[in-house]
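I am hoping you can look over what I have pasted underneath with an eye to the fold:
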Amino acid sequence: MKVLQMSAWIRPVVLSLLLAVFGVGGHVPSAAAHQAARPHQAGLARDAVATAGLDGQAALRASRAAVGHTPDDYTLRDREGRPVRLSDYRGKPLLANFIYTGCFHICPASTQALHKAVRSMHKRFGDKQFNVITIGFNQPEDSPTALKAYASQLRIDDPNWEFLSPDAADVAALSRDFGFTYIPTPGGFDHTLQVSVLDADGKIYRQIYGDSFTAAKIGEPLKQLLTGMRIIDGDVGFTDLIDRVRILCSVYDPKTGAYRADYTLYFMIAGGVTFFIAMLWFALSEWRSRAASRRPMNCG
């Protein structure tokens, strides 16, 4: 069925109303603006690394330094060995994390936590609103075949989630671009525990730390990007607008660990639209009344 488009005069009216009343599509807070709201740096440093073998403070500084930067357009291979470029994921927000398939505890546990968060956000935001990539940094061991087996073992087959294998020669630069730090150890690797949240233009917007990635941690920056993404574009259709309103009217419920609808915002939007229609009707009535009073009277 053909997607309905708003008429030329209704679209700017409705979009302007949403922009004015709710701030949809307006300024998205910069990553720097959120730095002050984050927990104490020492605590973050502990959350950001897999073990104490890595310098947590240095890893955290490297991770934060990547915020606001756009990683280079590297070519990686998907689970079928097909080439994929990072630029292929532009146009939507992107969640990116690094793992190595030889890890038997922390990487699988953190990936499963991310999977749970992603599925929760899919239920509320939709499974086509953002992409997810998991990058295997231990090359050549983290081959497309190994990553395919890793995803299968964790039962991850979500739409818009791909497991990618970079060229060995690109791993160091790719990791640096994402602010991801790792060092080899006798038992494997110590590495940063993070999910990078990228905007639709491929710029790193936020770093999420810890081995327990939840919808609460990831959902809010993702929600900010989704509600602010190209809402004032002239090609926005009615379906796109409804999706933005649905995402805006979502709140995280700590009791269920998932996002749900916030019906108070729906009522606010309905009230705002009703008020606007009433004002439009009043203005139209005034215009018709004045137009009628200016007509010459026929005295017979």
